[in-house]
Every structure is written in structure tokens, then in C-alpha cells.
């Protein structure tokens, strides 16, 4: 799956460099680096987060947040 996401990001970046306005969905889960009790880091997918290609810097990323309290509730689970 990771290779497909890299390909998508590379193609979207190529379009952006050609002047195309790239607008994409943020996604519903993303990669995070966590630390276990021994201090060792490991990668994990986190719900309600941003994933590829939504974390691409060369794009406008769209997602949904709670209507009246976005700072309290964060990202909407259905977006």
C-alpha cells in the first residue's frame, strides 16, 4: 500500500509543479510515531488523522471538524 501512496504523492506533486491547483481529502487515518515504555519508537496508524496524500505540502487539503467546537472535538470521524 505504501508504494501506491508514494506514487500518488509524486504524481500530485508533478501536477502542482506544472501549475495545477491540487485539492485533496485529508483522509481518516495517518501515520504517527509512538514510543513504548522502553523508549523505542514505532510507527502506527492513528484514527482521525491525516494520511497520504493529504499530508502533501503541495496541495490544498480539505477535511471536516466539529461544527461548533473544533478545538475541543477535533477532526470529525466521518470526514
UniProtKB/TrEMBL annotation:
Q: Which residues are in the Peptidase S8/S53 domain?
A: 18-68
Species lineage: Bacteria, Pseudomonadati, Pseudomonadota, Gammaproteobacteria, Lysobacterales
**According to the UniProt entry, where is the signal peptide?**
none
Gene Ontology terms: biological process = proteolysis
Q: Which domain of life is it from?
A: Bacteria
Q: Which Pfam families match?
A: Peptidase_S8
Protein name in UniProt:
Peptidase S8/S53 domain-containing protein
GO terms assigned for molecular function: serine-type endopeptidase activity
